[in-house]
Specification:
Strand 7, helix 9 and strand 8 (204-207) form a beta-alpha-beta unit. Helix 11 (224-239) packs across helix 12 (254-268). The chain contains 12 helices and 10 strands. It has 270 residues and is of the alpha/beta class. The protein has helices spanning 16-21, 43-57, 75-80, 97-107, 119-123, 125-128, 140-147, 159-172, 187-200, 213-219, 224-239, 254-268; strands spanning 7-12, 29-33, 63-66, 88-91, 112-116, 135-138, 176-178, 204-207, 245-247, 250-252. Helices cover 45% and strands 15% of the residues. The chain folds into 2 domains: 2-219, Phosphoenolpyruvate-binding domains (TIM Barrel, Alpha-Beta Barrel), CATH 3.20.20.60; 224-268, no CATH class. The strands form 2 sheets. Strands 1-2-3-4-5-6-7-8 form an 8-stranded parallel barrel, surrounded by 4 helices. The protein has a two-stranded antiparallel sheet with strand order 9-10. The relative contact order is 0.11.
């Protein structure tokens, strides 16, 4: 179920051998990539290898395929090559309502994970999250390139768009997945960004290296400290009959209690 995914591990579709090893780190889903991970000269080979990659993962982990963006010369051939049994189709750089309509026709009911990776896509995310889209993600690297900005470790240049995509997903009632951390050797940065993403309302994170899967799975679950706080708060709140109370220096009303319930639910609904 897409809403329960926390980690989406991307693997080049040209490497079914890598796909077969992907479950070792327990990602919630594996994405066989026909887009960024595959150079133009290898697109046909990647499509030809899809069936082998999907077969290697069948019954082990949910599998998605990321096609090339609508409007490119590869999109139609990508869609025609999609094997059966996919958990979803990842469509990058979605930015136009006409593209959504085209997806509905082309993908014939398959779940769509829409990528908002351009300025227009991020701005119009709420409009684009129609019934045809089951989930979405924010792509920071392409967004900054389209913006003409500068990528920085602090992520200030993507803060607004990142939050806007999360808000649009919330309004649409679909899960949103956070941007990749391209420096896969920087564990601390990945963990920091994953925690930021959870605070923003993201359900999980895109992973480009197996070492990122475990930290993603952990970051999007409540910590033991959060669970302990939520349980104690709710016990005190219920004992007081649901009225406003003082709890550990905080005023607690139904809004705060609802947040505590959501924390406990988030730990069990996985």
């Amino acid at each position: 179920m897409i809403a329960r995914w926390r980690s989406l591990l991307f693997v080049p579709a040209t490497r079914p051998d890598m796909a077969a090893k992907a479950p070792r780190t327990s990602p919630d889903a594996v994405v066989l990539d026909l887009e960024d991970a595959v150079p133009p000269a290898a697109k046909a080979d990647a499509r030809a290898a899809l069936a082998e990659g999907v077969a290697a993962l069948a019954g082990v982990v949910p599998v998605c395929v990321r096609v090339n963006p609508p409007g490119t010369g590869w999109f139609d051939d990508d869609v025609a090559s999609l094997p059966d049994g996919l958990a979803g189709v990842v469509v990058p750089k979605l930015e136009d309502p006409e593209q959504v309509e085209r997806l509905e026709r082309a993908l014939d009911g398959r779940p769509v994970l829409a990528g908002f990776e351009t300025v227009r896509g991020a701005l119009d995310a709420r409009t684009l999250l129609t019934g045809a889209v089951s989930a979405c993600y924010f792509g920071a690297e392409d967004y900054v390139a389209d913006l003409g900005g500068v990528r920085t470790p602090g992520n200030a240049e993507v803060a607004v768009a990142r939050a806007q995509v999360a808000m649009a997903a919330r309004v649409a009632g679909v899960p949103a997945f956070d941007m990749v951390t391209i420096d896969f050797g920087d564990h601390d940065r990945f963990v920091t960004e994953a925690r930021e993403a959870r605070a923003l309302g993201y359900a999980g994170k895109l992973c480009i290296h197996p070492s990122q899967v475990g930290p993603a799975n952990e970051a999007f679950l409540p910590s033991p400290e959060e669970l302990d706080w939520a349980a104690r708060l709710l016990a005190a709140f219920d004992e007081a009959g649901g009225g406003t109370i003082a709890f550990e220096g905080q005023m607690v009303d139904e809004v705060v209690a609802a947040r505590a319930r959501a924390i406990l639910t988030g730990a069990t609904d996985r």
